User: Fold this.
Amino acid sequence: MPKQIPDIVIGRLPVYLRALQQMAQEGRQVTSSQELGERLGISAAQIRKDLSQFGEFGKQGTGYNIEYLADQVREILNVNKVWDVAIVGAGDIGRALAGYNGFNERGFRIKMIFDNAPSRIGQRHGDFTIKDSATMKEEIRAAGIKMAMIAVPAAYAQAVADQLVEAGVKAILNYAPVNLNVPLGVRVLNIDPSIHLQRMTYYLE
Amino acid sequence: MPKQIPDIVIGRLPVYLRALQQMAQEGRQVTSSQELGERLGISAAQIRKDLSQFGEFGKQGTGYNIEYLADQVREILNVNKVWDVAIVGAGDIGRALAGYNGFNERGFRIKMIFDNAPSRIGQRHGDFTIKDSATMKEEIRAAGIKMAMIAVPAAYAQAVADQLVEAGVKAILNYAPVNLNVPLGVRVLNIDPSIHLQRMTYYLE
Assistant:
């Protein structure tokens, strides 16, 4: 049985990966925990400690091979393959997500977008035709989609989450400003700008 | 000197506040750490421990008065007043944020939105006229704005952050998929859907 890694460590790995991919794009080949730490505002010791939970990725004195380390982190995070993602809600946020071009090289492909408003169903948006959320459960199950983003008004979010879970979705990124109840084995992360802003005002005068 | 509270505790307070506000909207007056915990998927013991860092907010056996506890948490988080917020970037995400109606009752007021594209500058969007980012530094400083959301392409985000810091901004919610370097005393939180999705794929098959 693999050892349990704290979720806060898991949460930093995508941040490391993003920085490594950026360095690779800059044509760089080798980096160090010091340099990564300076880019990210995280101590070099923390980065070494986090990575050491998963193995030995660098040699003392020669640093990390960027491409190799990025590949390893992708493998740890299971994004060395492409995950299909469904979006529910084709309002401002849902459409912004559908049009966001930062998913593809990071392990995700937006596959479908749903809404329940007759004025939106059937409309084109970028590469997508907005689908009727009445068919959501069947379509997501048939496509074997395991990840979804909820971008519907708060009042509808729990009902949408229930349907996604029934359809086999295992991970939900929730943009609705409400807490979702899901069964064990399904993960939810919440994005609510007010929550994030309030986490910073604590530190302000 | 006040004791140092771990940031992870601070990060949960806005989640508690959101649930309390929701209960108040439902017409409820009293709750318990058990009930809060069930709504949020957090243990009752954790909630009691978090709140006890700031004082005594409930009586053993009678639970918490929702209105009172919400007021206290608002005061702790400094959102018992209204913070003006500037948005930089009037693309899909910036416009979605400008139109989001979840800020007002939670301590924030979007005050200005900036872009550098001639095709956008001067356009109306909802209640806002998109302003020229060339005037951003002066306008934000003159208005005394301390909080901003960055929703520009990754390549521009650091330059925007530098200007915001010069204008006196102390807290930045960054939607650009890139890490920002800011001086001590300025806080940044990052919202990057790929980062959040990758934090969940770790746990998937």
About this structure: Chain A has a mean pLDDT of 94.
